[in-house]
Amino acid sequence: MIEFLAGRVSPRDLTSEAWSLMFSEARQAGVLSRLGSTLCQSHATEKYLPERLREHVSAAAIQVDAFQRDVHRELAYIQSALSGLQTPVLLLKGASYVLLELPAATGRIFSDIDILVSKPHVGSAEANLMLGGWSTGKLDPYDQRYYREWSHEIPPMTHLRRGTTVDLHHSLAMPTCRIRIDSERMVKEAFPVDTNGFWWRLKDEDMLLHAASHLMLNSEFDRGLRDLWDIDLLFRHFQSSSNSFVEKLIDRSDQIGLTKIIRQALFLANHFFQTPVPEKLISNQDGFFLNLMICASSTRHPETRSGWLAISCALLTYREMYLRLPNRLLALHLAHKASELFKRTEEKKQV
């Protein structure tokens, strides 16, 4: 699958067994729907795809159409719940791609809708969502403190009837993060999606920078390939819309504090998808860290995954915690996680 996505293998060269393996890899990586949509758009389905796999592509297309309708319906519910809020409501990541009909929305399946309001309005937004049927559920005191005092978002809110989830943010990055990111500036320069004026969006450059920071500063490596595909599609789209996009992106990354992050993310996107990034932006990178990211973001299929996958993910998880939390909070967090692990181990022994 990795070779195919990078354009190093042509559809006509794939055997029936290779097609089957690629679909299995895509399912494990959470990109099967997007792969199916991509094959349909390139007409590779009719020409090269084995007959027995075509139904998977058709099913993926049906799933994507239904999912995007569900997203629009859920956005209407959220808008209704927050309509009285006297502050802009930003739509982030996957849901914003769907609303804006960006190429990155093609075949993208996600589990929650990410929104952002300014910190003074978080309490009102949470209360309004609760009245609309969303709830944070029951969390232990430590997790409540983690979200309420240190995180850039409150605990995820799940609708009691529909089971849909909203992640309510008040910043684009952890306030405790060791990498100083000017999230406030990105939010301040957001603008309305349309004349309706309810939903707001980030600037093009900031949308890509946010996608890059989410990938590089989080530990959701099981969806790393999907997020890199987002970055590739966003970069190609914005670059085709503006000849000066690359220059704007680099200038903006300098202003926001994400220069190193965006260069690393573009390096990885180029590695996996041949993203047309100028060589000067992706040269002279940290080889060890990027090799860990390549390993963690690659295929997770038992037949093709790297033997270093578990180690890579573990090292990157520790890196994520180190970057997110200062030393005192990091020690507290690790102690809490160790205590939880010990309790679970003891409970298993007693069963």
Automatic annotation (TrEMBL):
InterPro entries in the record: NTP_transf_5
Pfam families in the cross-refs: NTP_transf_5
UniProt protein name: Nucleotidyltransferase family protein
Originating species: Candidatus Dechloromonas phosphorivorans
